[in-house]
Specification:
Catalyzes the 2'-O-methylation of the ribose of cytidine 1402 (C1402) in 16S rRNA. Keywords: Cytoplasm, Methyltransferase, rRNA processing, S-adenosyl-L-methionine, Transferase. The chain has 280 residues and is an alpha/beta fold. It has 11 helices and 10 strands. It folds into 3 domains: 4-113, Tetrapyrrole methylase, N-terminal domain (Cobalt-precorrin-4 Transmethylase, domain 1, 3-Layer(aba) Sandwich), CATH 3.40.1010.10; 116-220, Methyltransferase, Cobalt-precorrin-4 Transmethylase, Domain 2 (2-Layer Sandwich); 231-275. The strands form 2 sheets. Strands 3-2-4-1-5 form a 5-stranded parallel β-sheet, sandwiched between helices. Strands 6-7-10-8-9 form a 5-stranded mixed β-sheet. α3 (61-73) packs parallel to α4 (94-102), α9 packs across α11 and α10 packs across α11. The longest helix is centred in the first third of the chain and has 13 residues, at 61-73.
């Protein structure tokens, strides 16, 4: 008889958020599969858990999942954890869970902390429906394609971002989505927890040159009934595009799809901006 795979959510900052059920599971399984054994050992030592661990980092999950699956099929109960939050949600574990399900192994969720839910619950934006993007692709063309795919959704958009990329990502979101309401949630459940709320343009200014520390969740308001950008938003988007070296004709054609403005009118505004010396 095969063992069971327990998908165990662990704290995203405050170690006291570990649930009693999660703690009991970590003590009773045969082995714990960790994103980083050294990181998880800090948690285990705090609660006196002596269970052995094996490493399952994101970069090697494909190579190492098979050995863990073999242990499950040989009858070992295994707990799956990541450095913080719920495994397999923009974190290692998705492949192992998929392979376990395919092999007929019982997979048991042990729910708990998740940064996306913490941010949504305290962010102040609509939570009835939301769309989780994970991390945007590093290639800007791919990131633009992903944002374009969801820009018409009325659901709140949620994404993770690294501190060093936050400023660039906020600029891209403002350019493509307009000046929507947004929230930057940082260091959730930790000592320096911070939720900054405001229009995207304000957040772009705040984080343009800021040194940001800690993990970041970004929430963006979904599309509202008013889909036409203001003239200020249009000018800002054109100026940003021209500054990045885009050709005016292709830029205004693309912006017309998102702004609610005719491409011809956008082109006229772009020419006016060039004439006044904003861009050569």
């Amino acid at each position: 008889m095969s063992g069971r795979l327990f998908v165990v959510a662990t704290p995203i900052g405050n170690l006291d958020d570990l649930s009693p059920r999660a703690l009991e599971t970590l003590r009773e399984v045969k082995v714990i599969a960790c994103e980083d054994t050294r990181h998880t050992r800090v948690l285990l030592d705090k609660f006196g858990v002596a269970t052995s661990t094996v490493s399952l980092p994101a970069f090697a999950e494909g190579q190492r999942a098979g050995a863990i699956l073999d242990r499950l099929l040989n009858g070992d109960d295994v707990a799956l954890v990541t450095d913080a939050g719920t495994p397999a949600i923009s974190d290692p574990g998705e492949k192992l869970v998929s392979e376990a399900v395919a092999a007929g192994v019982t997979v048991v969720p042990i729910p708990g902390p998740a940064a996306i839910i913490a941010a949504l619950s305290a962010g102040g934006l609509p939570t009835g429906r939301f769309h989780f993007l994970g991390f945007l692709p590093r290639q800007q063309s791919e990131a633009r394609a992903m944002i374009d795919e969801v820009r018409q959704l009325s659901a709140t958009l949620v994404l993770y971002e690294s501190p060093r990329r936050l400023g660039d990502t906020l600029r891209l979101l403002a350019e493509m989505l307009g000046n929507r309401r947004a929230v930057v949630a940082r260091e959730l459940t930790k000592l320096h927890e911070e939720l900054v709320r405001g229009p995207l343009d304000d957040l772009v200014s705040r984080y343009a040159d800021a040194e940001v520390l800690g993990e970041v969740v970004v929430l963006i308001e979904g599309r509202t009934g008013d889909t036409r950008w203001s003239e200020g938003e249009v000018k800002s988007a054109i100026e940003r595009g021209l500054a990045e070296g885009e050709r005016l004709k292709s830029l205004t054609t693309e912006l017309s799809k998102r702004s609610g403005w005719p491409a011809q009118e956008l082109y006229r505004i772009g020419l006016s901006l060039k004439t006044t010396g904003s861009h050569s």
